[in-house]
């Protein structure tokens, strides 16, 4: 037996906090009865749960890594008909969705899941899940510039949190930097590098927490191993 709001979050209805609001507002029924108390426990395999009249389906939990190619939108649909992540999910029957975003100009690692609670914790700054990028930037950043990136730079939406930044190699007139950040601001790495005078030419996300791109070709998916799921949940206190 599990708390109702946890079951709802795991089913992808909403975050746990939003699920609690739905319960309090009388929009949730269990076995036909309206539930407004947060302490109610349910059996997701036996009890019939409805939110605003729609049944909550308990799908098999899926945890997938995807190597997003450049030019693909991190979305399940696009009104302009551009390539989207969903185009690569034809063999996945569950309703999975991307955790966080990766802009269309970038490539690299995305986590896809239908575990709403895990997805919300992955995106929450409190858990400080590192995301690692290889950024090919214009020019040759000086050591002081790299330290500035690591300490935090001021963007239009505020100062960035401290990051881990190191020079990987020179590449002709450009430089490859590795940056590890745990914030999830829109196009953050690109904006950070531009702010210090070294705009990004190419950006690849290589790692999310301990999960890497190793062995995963562009456009390919792989299921997380049970031990990887267990380790990720432990990191997120699930």
TrEMBL record:
Highest rank taxon of the organism: Bacteria
One GO cellular component term: cytosol
Keywords attached to this entry: Isomerase, RNA-binding
Principal EC category: isomerase
Residues passing through the membrane, by range: none
GO BP: any one term: enzyme-directed rRNA pseudouridine synthesis
CDD domains, per the entry: PseudoU_synth_RsuA_like (cd02870), S4 (cd00165)
A Pfam family this chain is assigned to: S4
The EC number(s) this enzyme carries: 5.4.99.-
All residue ranges annotated as the RNA-binding S4 domain in the record: 2-62
NCBIfam families (alphabetical): pseudouridine synthase (TIGR00093)
Family, as annotated: Belongs to the pseudouridine synthase RsuA family.
Descriptive protein name: Pseudouridine synthase
Species in which this protein is naturally found: Kroppenstedtia pulmonis
